[in-house]
Each structure stands twice: as structure tokens, then as C-alpha cells.
Design goal:
The complex is a heterotrimer of chains A (581), B (336) and C (310).
Chain A (H helix, E strand, L loop, with lengths): L9 E14 L2 E14 L3 E5 L6 H9 L7 E9 L2 E2 L5 H7 L4 E4 L13 H13 L4 H14 L16 H12 L6 E5 L7 H18 L2 E6 L2 H7 L2 E6 L2 E7 H6 L4 H8 L28 E10 L2 E11 L6 E5 L6 H8 L7 E6 L2 E2 L5 H10 E4 L14 H10 L6 H14 L4 H4 L9 H15 L3 E5 L7 H18 L2 E6 L2 H7 L2 E6 L2 E6 L1 H4 L6 H9 L18 H10 L3 E2 L6 E3 L3
Parallel strand pairs in A: 3-8, 3-9, 6-7, 7-8, 13-18, 13-19, 16-17, 17-18, 20-21
Antiparallel strand pairs in A: 1-2, 1-4, 4-5, 9-10, 11-12, 11-14, 12-22, 14-15, 19-20
Chain B lengths: L5 H28 L4 H13 L5 H12 L5 H13 L14 H35 L5 H11 L6 H15 L19 H38 L2 H8 L4 H38 L5 H11 L2 H29 L1 H5 L3
Helix pairs in contact in B: 1-4, 1-12, 2-3, 5-6, 5-8, 5-10, 5-12, 7-8, 7-10, 8-10, 9-10, 10-11, 10-12, 11-12
Chain C lengths: L9 H13 L7 H23 L42 H37 L1 H16 L2 H12 L4 H9 L4 H15 L2 H8 L4 H37 L10 H10 L8 H29 L1 H4 L3
Helix pairs in contact in C: 2-3, 2-11, 3-4, 3-6, 3-7, 3-9, 3-11, 4-7, 5-9, 7-9, 8-9, 9-10, 9-11, 10-11
The chains are: A alpha/beta (581), B mainly alpha (336), C mainly alpha (310).
Chain lengths: 581, 336, 310
């Protein structure tokens, strides 16, 4: 192919595109007069929060807007074709052959009852009619090969593939007819960082190979910086800034762009926390350590989710201990074991010297009062039947903290204010009337009201919008800093762990592979697995090479190698003792 | 094709065997709890025929021995269960001495024929219409007419049967009122006989189809709405596949799966409904046999018919269970 | 595909706005209201009829035979009379009185059987979901087995062995076969809710098991329980009518199914005595349509996606 990565012929021209959705409250302008060109071989990122109109724009190009949405003005030109003027069947023929779509939900994007191969073939047949079976096989094999998947993948059903494999199958499907434009809608949002890096590299390499334009939709500034050539920043349906990645990262003009860039936590960068006051831990009657794991192990059938682990958290000075790992590392299992939701297969969990598994009713109530949690999903944490204050009021009364109804009310209001919520606006609402960020703050407020001795925070910010993450994390940090609560912070996000924690444990397949103070473990990792994790994080730093060649970067091989290396212990902190045997 | 996971197979087999055993046991126990003595009923029948019976005590004892009800209960139970396994339910008391199994064997083909015809047609039409109600390219007529017609589909087939019978048999006289074939044709593989069977079977089948298709259509409609929002359907559209292909291979193919499970759960009620339809049309199947047996207090036949119908139900469920893993590959992967 | 130039009609827009308003209170959807109205009218016929009509007319021979409804003629050329506005049957019973007594009886059997069945189902479903292990296995297999067995056939054996039964007894017997679906439904819901965030939060709040069951889970189960209840009522009435049409069930108490049975046996279809079987059939039809509408309405309450379509 003769294509240069950067020619001047645009494959997509958006001119004054406006999109509206009629609703009972009036017409909502989802996209307002947006103009932009995507040139051949160029990668253009559309960045913005949910509701900014980025996916809507992409769907308009595909002519797949959900009812009753409609393009109310402007023109969409795909390589010389006016998309809006195409008839239904012409548009169908255009999809995949000229513009391919790589969907967001890799988990659910493949037909669960069809093998991979026929799902690749039906796209070809729909555009080219009957094609010889051998020819189909040749082309689907070539596509699979180009995304680095073994050829036997063709005979598998979607449920037999991992998330990363499914997304690579989707990419293979998308490029099978060599489209002029690829639209990738948050293609890695459901994947782990390591897999994300691999999938993005595949996408970049294949896009360069067929020389098409790429429209990448996302919300992660780091991922954008490492992937695209140009960046379009959308806010409330309007294009607020557009330029090369270089321009935008180095000299953002719009304040919203600056917010987006600064909301990405960096390892070693400036902290988003301001640790001023150091509170004392609440006086404890017991001299026993707050939490102790004695050879705790968890099996699910033949699979060991957590290998025997022992540690002691003294709890006399409040601390944040981070447990970092990918999905399947055993970190969430650890969290549910600590909460007593999930009995260990072997070993004991002791809370103030008392075995969590063998508590009587009074001890159990005391344990519940003193060990609280913030979960990942703020949408699920509130019973949809009750107003949200039920979730705050009920435990307060249950643990005998309430002196009177007025006292409960005051306590709730104070807790809301402490996490930056206006009690009048949130307390008497139903859960569906609040945003994810508001709900998660309420869960933090709930923990604050009960003032437990230990808080388990399991991925507390992974489901809230990026711009809110820092402030919710600092709410949680305040629990330690101002209210003296010890916290176990379970996360996949090494950058935030770097900033908030006193001690970090990196978990890999149920084993600790590296542990110590965050400055050592995350700042200067020694174990190959920790290094792999940190190398995989996309940062908005153009100087850093995130890698383009996928041949030399095989995470499966790197992980297998890392599994052979013994754990690295990088020093200790007083009050927390991890058994290193 | 992968193999069916063993644990799944064992689970379903246990359910199947348990169903038969429990049903057979209940059917056996119930008459034993009743104060009614079948021997006395038989004696009463003799008395009614002959005017009076001498030595009634002796004859009663004789009858009890014939029926096997003078033996210890546990022995009776095992005899009954082992008999039931080989379809031996003893002799009919009303049509003495015809074996119950002969009567059932004569009625069974009619019931099975009607069942396969009506239940399968209903399942097919109902699901197709339900899918078309959701599909955004269906003709307007489908979306307006079908939901309106569906209101009537909550009615049990026995009521629709009465209505159809009155209109088409009694008033218009297009179809015969009762029976499975005309008494004027010799049963056999002749065109006249087949024509007669179809003529007689049409109304019973229709009365089942018109009222049950809506059940499937409603269920399918709900499932299709769910599938319509799935990512794989959106991706199929983005791939530029033809709408009709998406409808069949992506939407219906996935939405039908829970319907098949529902079919297995519902089949008992559907067969029971059909038995009633057979009864009002005096169709020569199990329904008529059952009704006549109830009139004559012919217990062995009542037990036999109930057992065989429950067996057919359980067998259908078991077959659906066996087929299911081939329709839904996910079952093969993660055994339930 | 939406084209930029096709402006929607104002009428369509109005209809859309009306649909959107229904989102505010899903319990006020027209299907639910119509369904409840139909059932209520049957109940009212039974309640008010008692006061305005002579119920002694349900006894055999209390009226002339086979009189047609007002405005019709029977085969013997007799026309309907005001004393028997919807005719009489072949046993000399007044149809109106039969319906005033029979329709509530039919509803009663359905409601009682489902209430008992639902109670059993709620108890077993919660037990299976919460206790797990052996208890769960037993309940699950039990429900799976019993759901396969058609209730009609077991009840046929029972009633032909025992002869006449009372209405309550019949309801009890049917209840033994309508607990399976609610059990399965509640078990599945409990198992999924057990994993939900708000139940975990309640556990963290030191809530007792009964609090979690009845205060956290139960309110969210309400639409499902209602739906399951209505489905049970339908199954129960279908089964009861089935038994009655086979000549079983209560022998001396008028019910809609019993009336149909007598009509068929007396050859009402051939003699064109359509009111004899037709009127009870019509009432049963109204009951079933009412139940279906309620169920469809409830579906829209628990599944908002359905609301967009109809």
C-alpha cells in the first residue's frame, strides 16, 4: 500500500453537525454544531465525560442513532459520500465495508450462540454475497492472525474467550473489509491495564497497516495521549478544544481540558491530598492487634484464589494499607474475607484477638460496628425502595449510637457536610435521583457516622467519573487523617495507591509479589510483575514510550516469567507486619 | 459439538426418575386413603346388571383377591410400581377384562398426534409473532393486530373449544361435532380415513392453537425487548448485516432459549389443557378415556391414564433438557 | 432511520408525551386499571346480586326449563321473560342466580389456592435462598419435580377416589400444585439479591436475617410477588374449571365450571341452548382477560423497558 500515515484527504468530514433528542421536557441538544475532519491514516481522539456527545456523534456517522434521536443540522461526509443522504440499504452496505465500529462492551458484543468464525464470515457475506468457503476461511484466518490471535480461536464460542481476546476478535471483524474509517468506542473500558495496553497496540498497528482513519472515543486522558495524533475535547455536546495531542497536553487552552489533564493521578507527581492534621486512632481497650490474618487461604473448587497469607495490622496509629492487583489477583477475595462475608478455606482472621468465624451475637455486633466498608458499585449500595437516608439512619440506630431522632438527623447532616454534600439536597432523595459520585460520597458519610476502627475500601472510585475520583479519594483519606480510621484500600489503580497509602502489597494470582512503602514499590518497582503493571499504565506523558510494536510485547509470556520470580519485600512500616515466609 | 457435562446429565436424570416415582406413588396412595372400596363398586355394578347378587360376601372376597387388594400394602405398592414401569396397570373394571394398557395404547396415538401438531405449531407461531411484534421492521398490522388478539389468549383451550364447536360444528356444521374420525370409514391408511381424521382433528387443534399462541408471543415479546438492547445486536447492525439475518440469527436465536426452558415447565399444563379439549370434543384420545373412566369409577384406568400422561410430560421435559445444551453452548461450558 | 427532515406529527408527539407521563407512576398504567376493573365487576355481580336477586332460584326445578334470555327465542318458540332475564338451564334453574352464586365461588377457589400456594412459595423460596446447602438442594429438586406434574391429573385421581369435595377442600388441593413457580422465582431472586450491594450494606449494619428478608428484600420483590400471584390465580382457576368440566369438584355448589359441565352433558350445544354454556364461558373469559391485563400491567411496573412499546 502506498498510503502515507498522513495525507490530506479527509475520510470523514463533520460539518456543523447537530443532534437532538426530543424528550417530554423539550428537545435535548446532544451535539451542537460540531465540525471536524479525520484524515486518512490519522488517529483522532474524542474525549469527554459521559453525556458529552462523543458516542452520539459516532453513532450518527454510522446512522445508528437510538430513537428518537436525529441529526437536526449539518452534514456528515464519509470519503466523498453524504452519509445523511444514503438510503437504508446503501447505509447498510457502507457499514463495515467503509466504516467499521468497535464497540464498548467487549464482554457482550459477540453473539453467544455462534462460534467466532461464522460471526466473521457473515459480515463478508452481507457485503459480497456468496463467497467460496475456502476464501472465507483464508480471510478470517488472516484477520485473526493480524490481531495476534491463534487460528483455533475461530472454532471457539465467545464465552470461551477472555475479555481481551473478545475485543481483539471485534477488531479482527472490524478490519476484515479494510474500511476507510474505524470508530472505536471506549474499546478497552472493561479491560485490565495490561490487556488494555495489548489491545490498544493491536488496534494501532492494524490501523497503521490498512491506513484507515481512526476515531477513538474515550475518557482517559492518559490512554488518549499514548494513542492518538489529534484530540477533540467535548463538553455538553460542544467541541471545546481541538488540536494535536502535543498542543493540547502542553498548552491546554480551555479550562475544562486543563481539568481533564490534571485529574489524572500520576505516580511521583503532585499529590492531590493535603495531609495537614494527623488524628490519633481512637483509644482502644484491647492491646490485641486490630486485624490479623493467620495463614489465610481461599479456594474456589480446584482454584486457589488466595495463597496462605499472614499479616498483622496493629491499628494504634491510623494507616492506609493498599492491596493492588488485576482482576483475578485475589484482592477482592481478601476484602470479603476481612468483612466476614466469605469464610477462609484455611487459617483464621482475628479481629482484636477474636476469631471472626466464631463470634457470639454481641461480639459480632461489635465487629460489624468497627469494621465497615465502601464498595465499588455506588448504584447497588442503596436499596431502591428506600430514601437514601435509610442507609445512614439504620446502622446508626442498630449500633446504639443514636440518642434521639434529632441526634440522628444532626449526625447525618454533619456527615454529609464532612464529605462535601449538601444534606438538604441529598438526604431525602431516592437513590436513582442521585449521581454515582453523590452516592459514593454518601457511603463514605455513612462510614464516617459509624466511626469504625477499620474501613475496607474495595475499588471505591473505579465506577465514578474521572473528575470526581480525586475528591472522593480525599474524602476517604480524611477518614484516616481526621477521624483516625485505619483503612485497607483495595484497588487496581497504582497511581492512587501511590498517593494515599502507607504500605502497599501487590497481589498476583493470589500471592504477594512485592510489598513495602509506596515510594519503593510503585516509585521504583523491582519485581517484574509490578514493573509490567506500571509500564502498562498509559500516562499523559508523550515522552514515555507506551510501545507500538506488539510482536515484542506479549503480556502472557511476561506474566508467566514474572510468576517464577520470588516475592520482593521492600522494607516495613511500624504498625503493619507482613509475614515474609 | 462438545459433550454434555456429566453433572448436568445426572441432575436431569435424577429429576426425571424422581418425577415418575413421586407421581406414581401419589397416584397409588390417594385411593388407598379413600373410604371407597373398589370391590364394592364392582359388586354394585354386578348387582345393577343382574338385579341381585347372591353370596355377596364371598364374591367381594373374590373380587378383592382379583384386584390384589387383600395383600399387605407394601407388597401391593411394589407390585404396582413394578407394574407401572412396564405399563401394566391391571384390568379395567368397566370394560372387564380388557387390560388398561390396551385401552391406553388405543387412545395414545390420537393424543400424541394432536399434541405434537398443536403444541409445536403453537410454539412456532407464537414465538414468531412475538418476535415480529418487537422487530422494528415488521408491518404495522403485526404490531396492532397481534397485541389486540392476544387479550383472548389467557382463556383456557376448553372455553375456546366450546365456542369454536358451537360456531363451526353446531351452527355452521362445517366440522363434525365429536369423535376423531367418521364411523362410516374403515380405519386404515386410506385417503378417506386420513381426510376424516384431519376433518375431525381440525377444531380440537385450532381451539388449542388460538388461545395458547399468545402465551408464547407474550413471553417472546419480553425476551426480544431484552435482546434488542444487547451489544451483540448493535454490533451486528454496525457490521452491515441484513436486517432479516439479524432478526433470525442474532435476535430470535438468543431470545428463544428461555422460551424453550419455559416450554419444558409449561408442558404439563398444556397437556392437561389438551386432555380437557379431547373430553369436550369426545376425541378418541386419553381425555375421553379418562372422562369415561371417571364416570364409571374405573380406578385402574384413571390411574393408568394419569400415570401415562405424567410420564409423557416428564419425558418431554427430559428431552428438552437433553437437547438444550446443543442449542445453548454456554451450558456445555459451565455445568449447572 | 431518522431523517433530519421528517418532522413528527403533533398527534404522535402528544401520544409520546402521554407515554412519558406514565413513567412517573407505573402503577397507574391502563392495563392494570382495566384488568382490576374487570375482576372487580365480577366481584360486584356476586356482592350486589345477593341483595337484588332471589338466590333460591339456583335450586333445580325452581324455574321453567330452558328459557332463553330476554329478546331471544328457544327452539320450542318460547321467548325470554323478565323473571329470568338471562334464561334458565335444562334443570329449571335461573341463570342469573347461578352466576351470582357461581362466579364468586370460582374466584374464591382461585384466590384461596394461590394465597396458600404463595405463602408456601415465599416460605420455601426464602428458606432455600438463605439456608443453602442440603435444604436448598431438597427444595430445588422438589420444586423441579413437582412443576413437571400436571395438577389436573393428580387431582382427578384424588377426587374420583374421594367423591364430593367442598370448595375450600378443592382450593387446598389445588394449592398443593401452585407453590412451585413462586418458590423457584423467589429462590432465584433471593440468591441474586443476596449478592447485591444493599444487602451487603445491611449486613454491615448489623441487620438480622429477618430484617434483611422482610425489610430489605421483600419490598423489592413486591412486583414479582404480585405477578406470580396473578399467574397462580389463573392456573388455579384453569385447574378448578378443568376438574369441574370432568364432572369432579364440588357436586352441589354452583360454580361456572360445573354449569358448563352440565350444559355439555345435556347436549346444550346441539339444542342451541347457547346461554346455558355461553354465559358462564363469557364470565370465565372476563376473569381470565382481567387477570392477563393485570399481569401485563405488572410486567410494565417491574420492567420499564416494556413501557416504551405499548
Amino acid at each position: 500500500m502506498l498510503d502515507h500515515p498522513n495525507t490530506d484527504k479527509p475520510v470523514l468530514t463533520l460539518k456543523d453537525v447537530s443532534i437532538e433528542f426530543p424528550t417530554p421536557q423539550g428537545v435535548v441538544q446532544a451535539v451542537k454544531s460540531l465540525s471536524l475532519d479525520i484524515h486518512k491514516g490519522r488517529r483522532v481522539g474524542f474525549i469527554g465525560e459521559s453525556g458529552s456527545g462523543k458516542t452520539t456523534t459516532a453513532l450518527a456517522v454510522m446512522q445508528m442513532l437510538a430513537e428518537p434521536g436525529r441529526v437536526s443540522g449539518g452534514s456528515i461526509d464519509l470519503g466523498g459520500t453524504d452519509v445523511l443522504a444514503l438510503g437504508e440499504d446503501e447505509m447498510r452496505r457502507t457499514r463495515l465495508s467503509r466504516v467499521a465500529y468497535i464497540p464498548q462492551g467487549a464482554m457482550n458484543s459477540l453473539n453467544p450462540v455462534m462460534r467466532v468464525e461464522p460471526q466473521m464470515w457473515d459480515g463478508i457475506i452481507a457485503h459480497e454475497g456468496a463467497v467460496d468457503r475456502a476464501e472465507l476461511k483464508r480471510r478470517s484466518d488472516a484477520a485473526l492472525h493480524s490481531v495476534g490471535l491463534p487460528l483455533h480461536t475461530a472454532d471457539l464460542f465467545p464465552h470461551e474467550l477472555s475479555g481481551g481476546m473478545k475485543q481483539r476478535v471485534c477488531i479482527a471483524m472490524g478490519i476484515i473489509l479494510n474500511p476507510e474509517l474505524i470508530i472505536a468506542d471506549e474499546p478497552t473500558s472493561a479491560l485490565d491495564v495490561v490487556t488494555q495496553r495489548q489491545v490498544m497496540q493491536t488496534l494501532k498497528a492494524i490501523q497503521a497497516e490498512i491506513g484507515s482513519g481512526l476515531m477513538l472515543i474515550g475518557h482517559d486522558m492518559g490512554l488518549m495521549a499514548q494513542t492518538v495524533d489529534e484530540l477533540a475535547v467535548l463538553k455538553d455536546g460542544a467541541l471545546v478544544e481541538h488540536g494535536t495531542v502535543q498542543q493540547i497536553l502542553e498548552a491546554p487552552k480551555h479550562p475544562y481540558t486543563r481539568d481533564l489533564i490534571s485529574s489524572v493521578p500520576l505516580v511521583g507527581g503532585e499529590s492531590f491530598l493535603n495531609p495537614d492534621a494527623r488524628a490519633q486512632a481512637p483509644k482502644r481497650a484491647s492491646s490485641e492487634p486490630l486485624l490479623r490474618f493467620e495463614n489465610v487461604r481461599k479456594d474456589y473448587g480446584p482454584v486457589t484464589a488466595l495463597h496462605p497469607m499472614s499479616f498483622t495490622l496493629q491499628g494504634d496509629t491510623p494507616q492506609i494499607i493498599s492491596i493492588v492487583g488485576q482482576s483475578g489477583s485475589g484482592k477482592s477475595t481478601m476484602g470479603s474475607i476481612m468483612l466476614g462475608f466469605n469464610p477462609p478455606s484455611q487459617g483464621k482472621v482475628l479481629f482484636e484477638g477474636q476469631d471472626v468465624a466464631g463470634m457470639n451475637a454481641a461480639q459480632s455486633l461489635d465487629f460489624r460496628k468497627n469494621v465497615q466498608a465502601v464498595f465499588q458499585d455506588p448504584y447497588a449500595c442503596f436499596n431502591p425502595f428506600y430514601r437514601v437516608n435509610h442507609a445512614l439512619k439504620f446502622p446508626f440506630k442498630q449500633f446504639g449510637l443514636s440518642k434521639s431522632a434529632a441526634h440522628t438527623q444532626t449526625a447525618m447532616e454533619q456527615a454529609c457536610q464532612a464529605v462535601g454534600l449538601d444534606p438538604d439536597l441529598v438526604l431525602n432523595r431516592y437513590p436513582h435521583q442521585l449521581s454515582g459520585g453523590q452516592r459514593q460520597r454518601l457511603v463514605v458519610a455513612r462510614a464516617l457516622m459509624l466511626s469504625p476502627k477499620l474501613l475496607i475500601a474495595d475499588e471505591p472510585v473505579s465506577m465514578v467519573d474521572a473528575s470526581l475520583r480525586a475528591s472522593i479519594l480525599s474524602n476517604i483519606y480524611d477518614l484516616k487523617d481526621q477521624y483516625g480510621i485505619s483503612i485497607l484500600y483495595i484497588t487496581h489503580d497504582l497511581a492512587t495507591a501511590y498517593h494515599v497509602s502507607d504500605y502497599v502489597m501487590v497481589l498476583f494470582k493470589g500471592n504477594v509479589v512485592e510489598a513495602g512503602p509506596p515510594k519503593e514499590v510503585i516509585g521504583a518497582p523491582q519485581h517484574p510483575y509490578t514493573r509490567l503493571l506500571i509500564d502498562s499504565i498509559p500516562w499523559p506523558d508523550l515522552a514515555r514510550s507506551w510501545g507500538d510494536g506488539r510482536q515484542d510485547w506479549d503480556p502472557a509470556k511476561l506474566e508467566a516469567e514474572a510468576a517464577q520470580v520470588p516475592a520482593v519485600y521492600r522494607g516495613t512500616v511500624p504498625g503493619f507486619d507482613l509475614s515474609t515466609t | 459439538m462438545g459433550r454434555i457435562p456429566r453433572s448436568y446429565l445426572i441432575n436431569r436424570l435424577v429429576t426425571f426418575v424422581l418425577t415418575i416415582l413421586i407421581a406414581a406413588t401419589i397416584i397409588w396412595i390417594i385411593p388407598r386413603l379413600s373410604p371407597v372400596d373398589p370391590a364394592e363398586i364392582a359388586l354394585g355394578r354386578m348387582a345393577a346388571g343382574a338385579g341381585s347378587v347372591a353370596n355377596s360376601e364371598e364374591i367381594l372376597a373374590q373380587l378383592r383377591a382379583n384386584m390384589g387388594i387383600d395383600q399387605p400394602l407394601i407388597l401391593q405398592y411394589f407390585k404396582y410400581i413394578s407394574g407401572a414401569l412396564v405399563f401394566d396397570f391391571g384390568l379395567s373394571t368397566a370394560a372387564f377384562p380388557t387390560p388398561v394398557s390396551t385401552l391406553i395404547l388405543n387412545a395414545l396415538p390420537w393424543t400424541m398426534g394432536l399434541m405434537i401438531l398443536s403444541l409445536l405449531i403453537t410454539f412456532f407461531i407464537g414465538n414468531l409473532l412475538g418476535a415480529l411484534m418487537v422487530w422494528d421492521r415488521s408491518p404495522k398490522l403485526v404490531k396492532v393486530a397481534i397485541p389486540a388478539a392476544m387479550v383472548f389468549t389467557s382463556i383456557p383451550p376448553i372455553l375456546s373449544g366450546l365456542l369454536l364447536m358451537w360456531i363451526f360444528s353446531a351452527q355452521l356444521q362445517w366440522f363434525p361435532l365429536t369423535g376423531a374420525y367418521s364411523i362410516f370409514v374403515e380405519p386404515g391408511w386410506t385417503w378417506d380415513f386420513v381426510k376424516s381424521v384431519l376433518h375431525h382433528g381440525f377444531l380440537p387443534a385450532l381451539s388449542i392453537v388460538v388461545v395458547t399462541f399468545g402465551f408464547w408471543a407474550l413471553g417472546m415479546r419480553g425476551l426480544m425487548i431484552g435482546v434488542q438492547g444487547e451489544d451483540y445486536v448493535k454490533l451486528a447492525e454496525a457490521k452491515g448485516l441484513r436486517p432479516r439475518y439479524i432478526l433470525y440469527r442474532y435476535m430470535i436465536r438468543n431470545a428463544i432459549l428461555p422460551q424453550i426452558t419455559a416450554f419444558a415447565l409449561k408442558i404439563g399444563l398444556l397437556i392437561a389443557g389438551q386432555v380437557l379439549v379431547e373430553r369436550i370434543f369426545a376425541y378418541n384420545g386419553m381425555g375421553k378415556l379418562l372422562y369415561d373412566a371417571i364416570l364409571n369409577q374405573d380406578f385402574p384406568v384413571i390411574q393408568g391414564v394419569s400415570y401415562v400422561i405424567i410420564l409423557i410430560t416428564a419425558l418431554s421435559v427430559f428431552l428438552v433438557d437433553l437437547l438444550y445444551p446443543f442449542i445453548d453452548p454456554r451450558i456445555r461450558h459451565e455445568a449447572t | 432511520m431518522t431523517q433530519p427532515n421528517d418532522m413528527p406529527l403533533t398527534r404522535a408527539e402528544k401520544r409520546q408525551a402521554r407515554r412519558f407521563r406514565q413513567f412517573d407512576n407505573p402503577w397507574l398504567n391502563p392495563k392494570l386499571i382495566w384488568g382490576a376493573g374487570l375482576l372487580l365487576s365480577i366481584v360486584l355481580i356476586g356482592l350486589l346480586g345477593r341483595f337484588v336477586w332471589d338466590l333460591d332460584l339456583v335450586f333445580t326445578g325452581s324455574s321453567p326449563l330452558k328459557l332463553p334470555p330476554i329478546g331471544f327465542e328457544n327452539l320450542r318458540g318460547q321467548s325470554g321473560v323478565a323473571a329470568h332475564p338471562i334464561g334458565t338451564d335444562g334443570g329449571g334453574r335461573d341463570m342469573l342466580a347461578m352466576i351470582i352464586v357461581g362466579a364468586p365461588n370460582t374466584l374464591f377457589v382461585g384466590l384461596l389456592a394461590s394465597l396458600i400456594g404463595m405463602s408456601i412459595g415465599i416460605f420455601l423460596g426464602f428458606s432455600a435462598g438463605f439456608l443453602g446447602g442440603r435444604v436448598d438442594d431438597t427444595i430445588r429438586v422438589g420444586a423441579d419435580v413437582m412443576i413437571t406434574i400436571p395438577p389436573l391429573l393428580i387431582l382427578v385421581v384424588f377426587q374420583s377416589a374421594f367423591g364430593d369435595v367442598s370448595l375450600t377442600m378443592m382450593a387446598l388441593l389445588i394449592a398443593g400444585f401452585v407453590w412451585q413457580s413462586p418458590t423457584r422465582l423467589i429462590r432465584a431472586q433471593v440468591l441474586s439479591m443476596k449478592q447485591s450491594g444493599y444487602v451487603q450494606m445491611a449486613q454491615l449494619s448489623g441487620a438480622s436475617t429477618s430484617h434483611i428478608m422482610f425489610r430489605e428484600m421483600m419490598p423489592n420483590l413486591v412486583p414479582y410477588l404480585f405477578g406470580s400471584f396473578i399467574a397462580s390465580v389463573t392456573t388455579s382457576i384453569v385447574t378448578a374449571v378443568g376438574l369441574e368440566v370432568l364432572g369432579l369438584g364440588p357436586q352441589r355448589i354452583p360454580t361456572l365450571g360445573r354449569t358448563i359441565y352440565e350444559a355439555i352433558n345435556a347436549g346444550a350445544l346441539i339444542q342451541n341452548l347457547w346461554w346455558w354454556w355461553g354465559i358462564p364461558t363469557l364470565l370465565l373469559g372476563i376473569i381470565f382477560i382481567g387477570l392477563l391485563l393485570i399481569n401485563l400491567g405488572l410486567d410494565e411496573v417491574s420492567n420499564p423497558r416494556l413501557r416504551k412499546l405499548s
